[in-house]
Amino acid sequence: MKIIVTGGAGFIGGNFVHYMVNQYPEDMIINLDLLTYAGNLETLKPVENAPNYKFVKGDIADREFIFKLFEEEKPDVVINFAAESHVDRSITDPESFVRTNVMGTTTLLDACRKYGIKRYHQVSTDEVYGDLPLDRPDLFFTEETPLHTSSPYSSSKASADLFVLAYHRTYGLPVTVSRCSNNYGPYHFPEKLIPLIISRALNDEELPVYGKGDNVRDWLYVTDHCKAIDLVVRKGRVGEVYNIGGHNERTNLEVVKTILKALGKPESLIKFVTDRPGHDRRYAIDPTKMETELGWKPEYTFDTGIVKTIEWYLNNKEWWEHIISGEYTKYFENMYGERL
Ligand code: NAD
Ligand code: TYD
C-alpha cells in the first residue's frame, strides 16, 4: 500500500511515521508536511534513509499542489495528522486554524474523491466534545457525545470532522475518524504542557501553571495512539468514529509535581499564572468501542509512560535545546511575558 501521512514532521505524525516505516516494510510511507514552526525534520532522522519512506514538503491547503501530488502518487490511504494544534496559539490567531485544519482537510477530501482512495483517516481530538465538569468523575466522552467546542482550535477540528463525515454520507468516501485524548512522549514540541515543564525544570526556570492547576487531562502515551490509529485504518468500519484514551486522568498540578519529583527539582519552581481564556476543565475518554470492537489496549499507564518520556528528554537534549533557542524564545516572551 502507498500511504500518505500528512503532518509527519510533527509530534504524533512523526511517531506514527517511525512506527509505520518499521512495522510495514512492504508499504510505502509518504510524509507530506509544510514544516511550519511545529514541523522538524530532525524527528525523521531515524527513518530518513529507509527504502519505504519519502518526504514531500507542501501545504495540505494548497489545492493545485495537492491534486498534482495525488495525480503522481495515486495513494491508497491518506492519514491526516497535519494541523495547527496548540490551543493558546488558536486564541491569538484563529484564522490559520481555519485554513489548515478546515480548508486543508476539505482539500485532501476533494483530492481523495477525484483520484479514488481505499481509506481516508482523520486524526481528531477529544476536544471536539468540549469539557466535563470537575465534580462529575462519572461522566466520560463517548462517540455519541454531542460536539460542543470551546476554543478556536477545537472548533476548527470539529468542523473538519463534520466535513469528513459529510463526504462519507454525501459522496460515499471511505472515511474513518479517531478522537484521542492528550498525548505525550518523544518529539513533543515544548509549547505543550509536559515537554514545556520538563525542559524548563531542567533549566531551573519558573513553571507556568494556568489558574489553580486543577484542570484535568486524560494522558495517553503517543505510541499507544499510533497503534490505535493503525488498527482503525486497517480494521475500523467505514463512516465510524473511534474514541481513543486509556483512563489516565491527572490534574495539571499532579502532572507538574510528578515531573518535578522525577527530576529531583523543587516545587518552588511552580508559578500559578493567569488562566487561559475559556479553559476546558476536564477531558475524559470512554474507550469501550476501541477495546471491544478492535481489541485495542494501551501498553502504558501515565506512571510508566511519563518515566519513559522524561528519560527521552534527558537523552535527547539536542533535539529540544535546538528548538527553544530559536524563534521559540519570541513565542515564549509573547505568550508568557506578562504572566511570569
Ligand atoms: P504538531 O503541531 O506537533 O504537528 C503538526 C504538523 O503538521 C507539523 O509537522 C506541521 O509542520 C504540520 N502542518 C501544519 N500545517 C500544515 C499544512 N498546512 N500542510 C502540511 N503540514 C502542516 O501536532 P500534533 O500534536 O502532532 O498533532 C497531530 C494531530 O493530532 C493534529 O491533527 C491534532 O489535532 C491531533 N491530536 C493531537 C493531540 C495531542 O495531544 N497533541 C491529541 C489528540 C489529537
Ligand atoms: P496543552 O499541553 O496546551 O494541551 P491542551 O490545552 O490541548 O489540553 O495543555 C494541557 C493543560 O495544561 C491545559 O489544561 C492547559 C495547561 N497548561 C498550563 O497550565 N501551563 C502551560 O504553560 C501550558 C502550555 C498548558
From TrEMBL:
Its EC number is 4.2.1.46. Pfam families: GDP_Man_Dehyd (PF16363). It catalyses: dTDP-alpha-D-glucose = dTDP-4-dehydro-6-deoxy-alpha-D-glucose + H2O. One of its GO terms (molecular function) is dTDP-glucose 4,6-dehydratase activity. Residues 4-308 form the NAD(P)-binding domain. Its cofactor is NAD(+). The keyword Mitochondrion does not apply. Keywords: Lyase, NAD. It comes from the Bacteria. One of its GO terms (biological process) is nucleotide-sugar metabolic process. The keyword NAD applies. Belongs to the NAD(P)-dependent epimerase/dehydratase family. dTDP-glucose dehydratase subfamily. NCBIfam families: dTDP_gluc_dehyt. This is dTDP-glucose 4,6-dehydratase. It comes from Lachnoanaerobaculum gingivalis. The gene is rfbB.
